[in-house]
Write a structure and sequence with these properties.
α1 packs parallel to α2 and α4 runs parallel beside α5. Helices cover 21% and strands 34% of the residues. The radius of gyration is 25 Å and the shape is globular. The chain is built from eight helices and 26 strands. By secondary structure, the chain is an alpha+beta fold.
């Protein structure tokens, strides 16, 4: 890769146009083992040796380049291709040569469009003076190799045994268990002299199931387990118990009552649902904790995350940090942990993003904004055995509270808030442990009795609502997840009461009819 990069940075040139000033190559290779099973039977066993490469080329110079015209993600302008799995030197160079030529020609065209647009646009001086791309010193990083040792027979048995649990639940219409083990590495080089090797490995177990109610509503759930080794995952017996709880919950919901009316009032969000909601809001490119540069071609009102610096975005008892080097928490491995990012930048050991509800800092890559001038080391490789991409992410997101409460106290606050609003009931939104689906429970304001309900859609839990919290739990949990393709570990309180959210009635008019003949497993 280095040989071909140096040849292209020196030789690529279209007369009358800008030369490339930055070229970056990435190569990901490894082994992939996949198992699929349904109802105790293996439905697929696959073994691959995928290899893929990516090329980014920028034309012009660090001050003025082809990026930031209609988009600011310089990775999105790159190209990818499969790579030789045997690392054949000549074939690797040939493919890199063609990709580099392609990306350079595109960059030249984009540069021309940008310079033409600059002549027509009336832009303020601070925008014109802002560099397009930050120059970095060369970094050499050789991370640990991404090796996973495993026994194929063990994982085949796990898939069979776990999927076989659903045989006891004939009211479940469909289910499957998938296992994926990827063991590999991602290599990166660029024209500034940076040379990187990152481990790329993951064990993923996904359990999916769905059923239908009499009126045709489809109800589904998904369990997901992530680890970097077999020891990071629960034992087969534990997962089978989780699957039983999943199936029983789905069967119970078949006869659960529908939500009868739309609701505006307090809700309590618990467990993985709360962690997922926080991630969705805090890692949003336009409104979250990631610096965003407005493209030159952008219309309408621009609301930027940096405009809210030193303003309150969350409840005053919540603090949020990025701690990318944290490898475990309470004995649980954190899959998002990393040492050096995909740009060769070493992140701070701890980055204070939100302090007592106040936005204090933003994560940023090499594309600066008016207020964030340097990369923070958060441009991370996405997980994907057959693709290469990156995204700005904290790796490990730590959400803490200075005034944690017990769950009983939180529930009491929820019911008190409902009564204050003249409501006879409130709602709790929760999922199963390791579950990725939210379920709704109606709670009597007088008795506190919880009842599962269906046909509801929760909305209105954005940042503006999250900062009006009535309390946060003292107990914290860990959720390992893939967010936007990026391995992410979230350490988050187990529950939060929000002053106001909306639950609307789901439209069931277009649902499909039930099968005419009963499930053969019921006979």
């Amino acid at each position: 890769m280095t040989d071909e990069l140096q040849r292209n940075i020196a030789g690529l040139f279209i007369p009358g146009n800008e030369k490339p000033f930055f070229i970056q190559y990435a190569l990901r290779e490894g082994t992939l083992f996949q198992v699929q099973a349904t109802m105790g039977a293996l439905t697929g066993v696959n073994r691959f040796m995928p290899a893929v490469m990516a090329v980014q080329t920028l034309a012009g110079n660090y001050q003025l380049s082809n990026i930031n015209l209609s988009g600011t993600d310089y990775w999105s302008g790159g190209r990818t291709d499969i790579a030789p799995v045997d690392n054949d030197y000549d074939e690797l160079r040939r493919r890199l040569w063609l990709l580099t030529d392609n990306t350079y020609k595109s960059a030249v065209e984009e540069y021309g469009n940008k310079t033409s647009s600059l002549k027509q646009l009336n832009l303020p001086e601070d925008v014109l003076e802002l560099p397009d791309f930050i120059r970095l010193s060369a970094t050499v990083y050789s991370g640990p190799f991404g090796n996973i040792t495993y026994n194929e027979g063990y994982w085949e048995k796990l898939a069979r045994d776990c999927s076989g649990v659903f045989k006891k639940y004939p009211k479940i219409y469909g289910s499957n268990v998938g296992v994926e083990i990827y063991s590999g590495n991602t290599y990166g080089v660029n024209s500034e002299g940076t040379r990187l090797r990152h481990p790329s490995k993951m064990i993923t177990i996904a359990v999916n199931a769905y059923t239908k109610t009499k009126d045709g509503e489809e109800i589904s759930d998904r369990l997901a387990y992530y680890g970097l080794s077999e020891n990071d995952l629960p034992k087969i017996e534990t997962m089978m118990k989780d699957i039983e709880a999943m199936a029983e919950n789905l069967v119970r919901l078949i006869d659960a009552p529908k939500i009868e009316e739309s609701y505006i009032g307090p809700i309590m969000i618990e467990g993985s649902v709360l962690a997922s909601e926080m991630v969705s809001e805090l890692l949003s490119v336009r409104t979250g904790l990631i610096a965003y540069r407005t493209p030159l071609r952008s219309g309408g009102i621009q609301k930027l995350p940096e405009d809210r610096l030193n303003r309150r975005i969350l409840s005053s008892d919540i603090t949020v940090k990025s701690i990318p080097g944290m490898k475990s928490y309470n004995g649980q491995t954190l899959i998002g942990s990393y040492e050096v990012d995909a740009e060769g930048v070493t992140p701070a050991a701890e980055m204070l993003l939100v302090e007592n509800g106040m936005l204090r800092a933003l994560m940023c890559d090499r594309v600066p904004t008016k207020k964030i001038k340097a990369p923070t080391g958060n441009r991370i490789y996405a997980y994907g055995p057959q693709s290469i991409s990156t995204r700005v992410s904290p790796g490990v997101l730590f959400i803490d509270t200075s005034n944690g409460l017990s769950r009983d106290t939180l529930k009491a606050r929820l019911l008190a808030a409902a009564e204050k609003e003249g409501l006879d009931y409130a709602y709790i939104i929760r999922g199963l442990p390791n579950g990725r689906t939210s379920f709704i429970y109606k709670v009597s304001a007088k008795t506190g009795i919880e009842e599962p309900v269906r046909a509801g859609v929760v909305s209105g839990t954005g940042l503006n609502r999250l900062k009006r919290s009535l309390g946060v739990s003292a107990e914290t949990g860990v959720l390992n997840m893939i967010a936007g393709g990026i391995p992410l570990s979230v350490i988050c309180p187990e529950a939060m009461v929000i002053e106001e959210a909306e639950i609307e009635i789901r439209n069931l008019q277009s649902t499909t009819k039930l099968p005419l003949v009963s499930n053969p497993l019921e006979e």
